[in-house]
Amino acid sequence: MIDREGGILGIGRSETLSDSLDLSYFTAADKTKMQELELNVRKAELVTPHPENTFHFEGEDQTEKLIIDNPEDFWSASRYLVVVIKQ
Predict the structure, then answer these.
(1) Consecutive 10-residue averages of pLDDT for the chain (87 residues)
(2) Domain range for 41
(3) How many domains does the chain have?
(4) Residue 80 falls within a domain, yes or no?
């Protein structure tokens, strides 16, 4: 589902969605109503390409949620949202 390319020992590696993406792994959501996503994990990062100034992660000791600040621009780059989390 996620292809990891390049880098040495994980440094400089990029993650992208695989061409053989299985859509059954996704949950449908109304992007016009989705303003935040509860995560409550140690660390999170986006795999799908969304402009950096359109979202932010919230939380001090852990990543509590993803906040979408500018939905129109956020969803302009990809209609999917893939978040990699570390517990």
Answers:
(1) 51 57 82 93 91 95 95 92 86
(2) 25-86
(3) 1
(4) yes
